[in-house]
User: Fold this.
Amino acid sequence: MLRQYELVERVKEYAPDADEALLNRAYVYTVQKHGTQKRASGDPYFSHPVEVAGLMTELKLDQETIITALLHDTVEDTLATIDEVERYFGPEIARLVDGVTKLSKIEVMTESERAAENLRKFLLAMSEDLRVLLVKLADRLHNMRTLHFIRSEDKRRRIAKETMEIYAPLAERVGMYEYMREMQLLAFEQVEPEAYATITGRLAQIRAQEGGQVGQIALSIKQALAEAGLKVEVSGREKHPYSIWRKMAERHVSFEQITDIMAFRVLTDSVDDCYKALGVLHQQWHVIPGRFKDYISTPKSNGYKSLHTALIFENSMRMEVQIRTRGMHETNEYGLAAHWAYKQGGVSPDGEIAWLRDLIEIVDASHDADELMEHTKLAIYQDRIFAFTPKGALFQLPKGSTPVDFAYAVHTDLGSMAVGAKINGRHMPLRTPLANGDVVEIIKSRKSEPQLSWLAFVVTGKARAAIRRAVRMKERAEVAAIGRKLLDEIVERLPAKVGKKAIAAAARRLGLGGEEDLLVAIGTAKLDDRQVMEALVPGSAKGLAEPEQWPKQERAISIRGLTPGVAFHMADCCHPVPGDRIVGIRQPGKGVEVHAIDCLNLANGVDADWLDLSWGERTTGAVGRLRCVLYNRPGTLAEVTGIFARNNANIVQLHMSQRDDLFGTYEVDLEVDDLAHLTRIVSSLRASEAVAEAERI
Ligand code: MN
Assistant:
C-alpha cells in the first residue's frame, strides 16, 4: 500500500503547487474514518481508497481528484457526512465526493430499478463533473483486481457481470482502453470460467509450439523500419482471452479461424512517420485485405487516433499492427483522463479537444436522450425509451413501443379506450414507434374497444395481455352464441325436453361453472355432442361414434398465448428454444405447431392462422438442434460430449450425417434452458480444437 508521504510525493512530482497540507489531511481523514474496517483480503479498508488515489496519480490528475479518490467511500461506508467533508475540504471536493457516492447507489439496485431511475442520476453526476466518473472507474478497477479475495462465487459473478455490462463500456466510452481491457479480462474469468479456461489453454499451447514469437516479430518490424530510416518503438502482445472470445462470438468463427492472436504497436515521433511506417510494412509483408483502417484522418468519436492494419508474417502467421504517434498513444490509452491531467497554470480541461466538449454537451443536452444512449453505449439501457404524458409524467418502455403500449402503461382503461394519439402535438397513427423524449397524448372514446390488429405492433406484455383479454371476452361472447345454436340442435335430438335447470345440472356434471361455460365448451368443440347428450340425459348417446383423441404434449414446456389445455408440439424444422421469438400454427387434428418466427417453413403457411405466442416462465426440456463438424481423429467426439456435459446440456439425440477422411458431421439435439444457454454452448464448441464448425440449424 502507498504510504502517506509517497502519495503526496507522487502528486508533487507532476503538480508542484499542489496543497500538501490538504492532501495529508485527506489521507489521515480516510484512515481515521474507515478505522478498523477490513477488506475481504484482510487488509485494512483504507488501503482501498489509498490505492484508488494511487491509480489517479498514474493519470496525473489534479489534487481535487486525488482527494476525492481518498474520500470516495467515507460518506457511503462510515459516519462521515457530506457537510463534514465540505467543512474540511471545501465545496468542490464535497460535490465530487457526493457524485461518487451517488454512483455507488447503482450497485445495490436491481436491474429494473437501475434502468429507469439511475441512468439519469448516473449521467447527471457524470455531466456535473467527469472526474467523478474517473474516480468511479478507478474504484471499480481496484475492486476487480482484488475480486478473487471474495469468497462467495455468486457475489464475484454478480460484480463481474456488472463490470462487463456497465463499467467496461463506460471506460471504453471515455477512451480509457487500458481500464476497459483489464476490467474485461478480470470479469471474463468469472463470468465465463469455462470459456476462459479453454482459451487460455489454447493460447498456452500455441505459445509452447511457436515459442516466444512475439519478441522475434517485434524485432523484425523494428529492423525493417530502422532500415527505412524510421526511429520507432515497437511492442507486441498476445491479445487477451476476452477479446479473442468476443471476436469468436461476433464473427461466428472458431478459434482456428482467429489466426491473428498477436498484436503489435508501432509508436512514432510524427504523423508523417506513421504513414511512412505503414508504407514500409505493406511492402515488406502481405497485407490482409479489408483490415486497413485510418483512424488518424477519421478519428473515432471518442477521439481515438491510430492506423490499423493486418499482415501475414513469414510463415503465414497473421498479426494486427497499430501505428500511431506517442502523443496519440497517451490520449488513446487514457482517453478523457489525459485531458484532465494536471496542467501547470490551469486545471481546467483542454478546451480545444472537440470530442471532449462534444461529450459534455451530449450529456448536458438531456432532451436528446437518444443521442445520449447511443454515446454512452450502456447496453442495458439501449433497449429502452422514455416518453412523457402531456403533464410530464415519465414512462419507461421497451424500444419499439407505440402509443398503444404507452396508453396501457399509463392505465389499462386508457389503453382500452384509445382511438388515436398525438405525438409531440401532432396526430400520428397508433402504430407509430415512439422515440426517446416524445410527449404522447392519447385520444380516447368511451365507445371504443381494443382491436385484435393491435397485437401486430404492440411490444409490451401489459398491452398484449390486456388486448388479448378484451379480445378473448369478445370472442367468448361470439363462441357462446355458436355454442347456443349447437346446444339447441343437440337438445332437439334428445328423447326428452330439457329446461334451464337440467342444463345447469349438466354443466355441473361436466365440471363447468355454469351455462355460459357449457356454451363456450361446446362452441370451441372442447365437448363433443356425445358428451353433452350424456350429461343432459344419461344413456342418450349410445350408438354414437367415439370422439378422436388429441395427442398429449410430452414435456414441461409452458407457452403463453395458447388456450390452456390445447395440444401443441415444437416444430421439427426449426426446434425453437426459449429466447427465440415464436408463433403457432393450428394443424387440423394435431393441435398447435410452435415455430421460430424466422423458420423458413412458415413461408409455406402464409394463409394459416398464426397465433402470437411467447415463452412461459417455467420451461424445461426445450430441444435445440446443432450441426457440428468435427475433425476426424480419435477423441474428438468425447471432447465434444464433454463440452455438453460441462455446460449441463443433455444430449437427446446424436447422429453422424456425413464422414470423410478429414471431417465428421454430426447433428445433435440438446436439451437446453434457453437461447443464451444454446449460444454459450455453440461458442464453447467453436473454442474447442476438436471442432471445425458449429452452428445451430
Ligand atoms: Mn470504493
Notes: Residues 48, 72-73, 139 surround manganese (II) ion (CB under 6 Å).
